[in-house]
Amino acid sequence: MIFTSLSPNTQKDDILFSFKLLFSPFWKSNKLDRERFIKKFNNSIGLKNSYAIDSARNGLYIFLQTLNLKESDEVLLQAYTCVALVNPILWAGATPKFVDCSKDDFNINISDLEKKITKKSKVLIVQHTFGKSADLNKLQKIAQKHNLILIEDCAHSLGTKYGDKFTGSFGDCSIFSFGRDKVISTTTGGILTVNNDKYLPTVRSMYNKLPESSGYWNFQQIIHPIILSIAKPTYNFFKLGRVIIALSIKLNLISKPILISERNGKKPSNEITKLSGSLCLIGLHQLNKLKKYNNHRIKLAKIYSRSLNKTIPKPKIDENHIYTRYTILLDNPDSIYNKFIKKNIQLGRWFNNIIIPKGINLENIGYKKNSCPNAEFLANKSINLPNGIQIKESDAVKIAKYIHEISK
Q: Does residue 8 fall inside a structural domain?
């Protein structure tokens, strides 16, 4: 079966690597492994002052805490995003202010942003949606004009360039995610990078106080790709693979990507930790394949772009962008998704809700219906095409053909 999500980066060597870690003392954190990972990460995209944390959302929360924000302080961010980006704002005691996005590139709409800046606006978070960089030149000027702290959300854009620099280099800080479906994956985990020296002492102090993660938590992350490698081949065989995944979650063998409390804007009770040495070893293993992964994504994006007819809205090809998800717009994405499942092809649903995942209480997180019409339009039409390392060029051509057949 062909997958868009469910650990699309995982190859045979990654499964073997996880097996080796299972039989190593993974419960003991190795500080040197973490330092090696951070150094390689920084060198890969020209950054410094990075900190490896158990999730990108917790990295963002740490940085927001250093700003001493009040409830009346607004943090501007685009709609058409994940609740994981919204929650740290709420946890830090500030107010999220949602800005519409542009239909052509899924990124923040400059015109709507300028309308929504007020005297209460303190922070601007810029999301590089699906690996396409936002207009950082204009956004930096707006941030400077209004004295806004600029944060880059690079969860989708590890390896994307804007001009001659990689995303993550432009803001006062940036966050990167290594979640299960991200550019590279350690199952969970992230990086917080501080580019403005003003904030370094406080961030460094907070980071140094973070505890190490528990041995069982590490076990849950390490075994995740192994369990998925068993479930995916039988995913559509009497839904056996889906049962394996659901049962693994119920038995607490693997962790959920988003907890129930987070769906309601609440902070989970578990403490924030440093990213363990064992997961950093997985990160090192994945970083060695970063260019290979991204070049493959670009190659498939070109195939989709050529193979899909002009009536289907689709992204423009730019080799500076990495297409973590190749997203097109269709009038009936739910129906298309279900028809593809019957063909043993799982399409992706980033972002099939104004704030994902579906079921989020939008009122609890501060989103007002109809305040971002472009984002709501996109959420009703978006569907992602498979472009992971396991997807062949012939698969992409076949998928494009199916879309034409089904969407007539």
A: no
Beta pairing class for 81-82 and 355-356: parallel
Q: What's 131's DSSP letter?
A: G
Q: Compute the C-alpha angle 204/206/212, nearest 5°.
A: 100
Residues composing the chain: 408
Domain that holds residue 368: 290-406
**Rg (the chain; Cα; Å):** 20
Could you give the maximum distance between any two Cα atoms of the chain, in Å?
Answer: 58
CA angle 177, 213, 191 (to 5 degrees): 20
Other CB atoms within 10 A of residue 350 CB: 23
**Interior angle at CA 135, CA 129 and CA 91, nearest 5:** 55
Q: Residue holding tokens 């998925």? A: 228
17 in a structural domain: no
Q: Is the dihedral of CA 247, 248, 249, 253 positive or negative?
A: positive
Contact call for residues 178 and 189 (beta carbons, < 8 A): yes
Instruction: Tell me which residue has tokens 């069982």.
Output: 216
Mean pLDDT of 377-383: 97
Within a domain: 164: yes
Residue 76 token pair: 């501007």
* Domains in the chain, number: 2
For 316, which DSSP code? P
The amino acid that residue 158 corresponds to is L
d(CA 279, CA 309): 42
Q: Distance (Å, rounded) from C-alpha 232 to C-alpha 242?
A: 8
147: which strand partners?
none
CB contact at 8 A, 82 and 355: yes
One domain, residues 170 and 300: no
Q: Are residues 323 and 193 in the same domain?
A: no
> What is the value of pTM for the model shown?
0.96
Taking the CA atoms of residue 94, residue 97, residue 103 and residue 104 in that order, the dihedral angle to the nearest 10 degrees is -50
The Cα–Cα gap between 22 and 219 comes to: 7
Amino acid at 395: D
Instruction: With respect to residue 87, please indicate whether it lies within any of the assigned structural domains.
Output: yes
| Domain end (from 181, 208, 235) | 208
pLDDT (tens digit per residue) in 61-108: 999 999 999 999 999 999 999 999 999 999 999 999 999 999 999 999
